[in-house]
Amino acid sequence: MTASAPFAPDALLAAFDDRVGGVPTHLSRAPGRVNLIGEHTDYNDLPVFPMALQRDVRIALRPRDDSLVVLHNTAEDFPSVEFEIEPDIPPYVQGAWGNYVKAPASELARRFAIWRGFEGVLQSDVPVASGLSSSSAVVNAVGLALAHINEVGSEPRSFAEVMADAEQYVGTRGGGMDQAISLGARNRHAAKITFSPLRLRHVNVPDDWCFVVADTGKRAEKSKAAMAAYNLRRKECEEALREVAGHVATVNISEKLHTSYPELVAAMDTGTLLEAAEDVLTGNLLRRFRHVVSEAARVEEAVDRMYAADVTGFGALMDASHASLRTDFHVSSSELDEVVAVAREGGAAGARLTGAGFGGCVVALADRWTVGSVLETLVAEYYERRQMVDRIDDRLFVAVPSSGASFQELG
Ligand code: NG1
What we know:
Blueprint lengths: L9 H10 L6 E12 L11 E15 L4 E6 L7 E4 L14 H14 L5 E7 L9 H16 L6 H12 L9 H8 L4 E6 L4 E6 L4 E7 L9 H26 L10 H7 L2 H11 L2 H25 L3 H17 L6 H12 L4 E4 L7 E7 L3 H13 L8 H4 E4 L6 E4 L2
Parallel strand pairs: 3-5
Antiparallel strand pairs: 1-2, 1-12, 2-5, 3-4, 6-7, 8-10, 8-11, 9-10
Helix pairs in contact: 2-3, 2-4, 3-4, 3-5, 4-5, 6-8, 6-9, 8-9, 9-10, 11-12
């Protein structure tokens, strides 16, 4: 994990002096991310293709000589948290942001018997509950801080797996994409991520490409209302896999029993696999299966389209991804569909919901010649109509493919 340029803006230092007193000794930072394609595939062990954002969570901190963690947040909506590090820390009520602070502490204590806490102040410009992974940015920034001050190794790939396990603490049965890209991203690159074992293949984002992020303004709080819907999707995917794998083995479409999505996808082409699925699945289980398998194929294709700098081809895959998420995976919303349509009307090569869905953000692909029109059309046709032009830079921006998390000594 390379340290990026020193970043300790005055506001964060002033907040530290005000809330903790004196000066911080370290800065831990972890970015949010935008997923370009590959949605609801990570927890099925199938690939994703995200990139880290220029927006991040930063924690200015000073280690303590005991096991207390005291963390203040510069955003008023988020009360200060204070707890002792121990394995299996009792959680706050469901939905409390402090659980994202306790999550890495509990996991690192369980695995590595860490004990040293810190006091610090957290500042973030990653939009919350918008599908840009503000939650994993908090988990990673806290985790990285605790790992460093307790001298636990934090090589990005293995640490990402630890942090992915850690985040299960909040109750959402998420996959490993967010922790991996936030820790392992490279400047100017997106990464194709594969799982079990975790691997990142960094792909240069063509200079002309502009990924526009547009927030619908509808929150999708996966630690609250959307949690049950998200966890249900995961269960349905597991059930669909069991059915299809059993069928494939019984009718001898393939010679051996495949027990994971990657095995099934590798054993036959998408068409044959979907035909086999239609023999045994109906209704929502068939829809979930079809989304997951077709989305995995789109990820492979999208990586090739990016290498070829084929903006039209990549955009078409994003459109197909959105259609599949809407009609087969049932995670879109009227606002997400509207923003996708408006972005296309403005000249985007393609657009889709990003993150888990149920609200949150859309990602649209433009190039340097069309990006102005995409942004203007979104402002005129979505944000102005809904009187949402205040804080527009937080709601609508061009994503800069950025480097992963860092931890540095200050002063
Ligand atoms: P968001 O909605 O951005 O938090 C979630 C999961 C991912 C992945 C996507 C859907 C967590 C922390 N993140 O992302 O692992 O499954 O949904 O592709 O649960």
